[in-house]
């Protein structure tokens, strides 16, 4: 009876939010592992089904986007404000104070201009601000991931401008565990951070004495192998990266153990290689060791490691080359895709579909059995095929983001 009353109260609350006015309103919903308050619900509970955050959590401002990181989440409002919740052990929330985590969204301090884009890595965050479009970073686990130079702080608790990007207009940044990739308005790709697995795309260069130089970059550096290529979309995985050019070609670089990236017989994974087997594409997403692309026709392709069924092809077999993800997507086009550590989410016709790792057996809790539920289907078991996430209200999905083992979405009411 207590559980029913709680659900009934929650449903009445949702109805009040969604019917409060007749104007278009956007909302955030989150689900999955709740450790460190990454879901922003005011507690540490994991959620096996989507839970909405109240509009008051963001000053009643509409939401533009969401970015799920390792154990934290960022929110961008339509007014250019950034909010953060979750783990703050490396300052990734960009808030003042010494709190190790927060359980509710708090506005990020020190952004002097309105933000237009956000990105969350495992231990660090980024915002691109308004008219000048400069990248600002907070919370780095390792000094080089900040892009602030060798003399920069090892931990950056508040937003700090990447001064070496002054004069460049940055339109997109993708963050991973220990590296970052940015794209200028002219289509130039830059990368920085840890590059030991070739994920920066700069190759393994030797010094004049024959020793390999450091593979890390403390400041953003142009990817020379992509000069002359106009990049429009980038993604960063655990140890690999990918980008799409203006013609729809896919380039990948980084870790290629067990053929995870589909390089075929390419000799050098430390520099970008084009995936010839993939149709012309619009968008790319990278997970732990898998990659997904949306083609210009709205088809979804995936390849790489397939633990827990994260490729969505109905098996756990790894695929070295792009494999079309069908199921519901054979009848309707895919609009957005996001990859987590070992799970994937996509939007098709306003609905969210998830598949892969459900969260049981494999998180970093002491007993190894911390609940996940990042697929949002009411359990923490794995799903090998895309399965639609159900919501308590009639909503249309605008954006979805996968973190390590949680998922978030921006939705708008579909009530007429």
From TrEMBL:
Record-linked Pfam families: WD40_RLD
Keywords: Repeat
Listed SUPFAM superfamilies: RCC1/BLIP-II (SSF50985)
GO cellular component terms listed in the entry, alphabetical order: cytoplasm
Residue intervals of the RCC1-like domain: 30-407
Ranges: RCC repeats: 26-79, 80-131, 187-247, 248-297, 298-350, 350-413
Entry protein name: RCC1-like domain-containing protein
Organism: Hevea brasiliensis (Para rubber tree)
């Amino acid at each position: 009876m207590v559980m029913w009353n709680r659900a009934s109260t929650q449903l009445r609350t949702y109805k009040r939010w969604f019917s409060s006015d007749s104007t278009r309103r956007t909302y955030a919903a989150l689900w999955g592992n709740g450790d460190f308050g990454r879901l922003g619900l005011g507690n540490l509970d994991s959620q096996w089904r989507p839970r909405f955050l109240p509009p008051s959590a963001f000053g009643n401002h509409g939401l533009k986007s969401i970015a799920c990181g390792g154990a934290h989440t960022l929110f961008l409002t339509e007014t250019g404000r950034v909010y953060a919740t979750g783990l703050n052990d490396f300052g990734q929330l960009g808030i003042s104070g010494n709190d190790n985590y927060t359980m509710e969204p708090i506005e990020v301090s020190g952004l002097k201009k309105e933000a237009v884009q956000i990105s969350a890595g495992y231990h660090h965050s980024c915002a691109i601000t308004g008219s000048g479009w400069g990248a600002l970073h907070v919370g780095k686990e390792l000094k080089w991931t900040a892009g602030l130079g060798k003399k920069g702080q090892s931990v950056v608790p508040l937003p700090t401008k990447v001064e070496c990007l002054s004069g460049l207009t940055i339109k997109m940044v993708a963050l991973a565990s220990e590296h970052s990739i940015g794209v200028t308005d002219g289509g130039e790709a830059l990368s920085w951070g840890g590059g030991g697995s070739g994920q920066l795309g700069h190759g393994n260069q030797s010094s004049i004495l024959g020793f390999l130089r450091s593979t890390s970059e403390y400041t953003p550096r142009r990817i020379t192998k992509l000069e002359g290529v106009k990049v429009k979309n980038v993604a960063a995985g655990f140890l690999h990266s990918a980008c799409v050019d203006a013609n729809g070609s896919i380039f990948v670089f980084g870790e290629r153990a067990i053929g995870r990236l589909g390089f075929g017989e390419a000799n050098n994974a430390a520099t970008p290689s084009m995936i010839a087997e993939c149709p012309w594409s619009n968008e790319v997403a990278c997970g732990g060791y898998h990659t997904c692309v949306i083609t210009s026709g709205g088809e979804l392709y995936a390849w790489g490691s397939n633990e827990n069924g994260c490729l969505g092809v109905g098996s756990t077999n790894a695929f070295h080359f792009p494999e079309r993800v069908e199921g519901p997507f054979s009848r309707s086009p895919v609009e957005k895709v996001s990859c987590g550590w070992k799970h994937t989410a996509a939007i098709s016709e306003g609905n969210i579909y998830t598949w892969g790792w459900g969260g049981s057996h494999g998180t970093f809790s002491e007993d190894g059995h911390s609940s996940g539920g990042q697929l949002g289907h009411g359990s923490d078991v794995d799903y090998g095929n895309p399965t639609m996430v159900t919501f308590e209200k009639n909503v249309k999905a605008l954006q979805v983001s996968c973190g390590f083992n949680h998922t978030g979405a921006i939705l708008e009411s579909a009530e007429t």
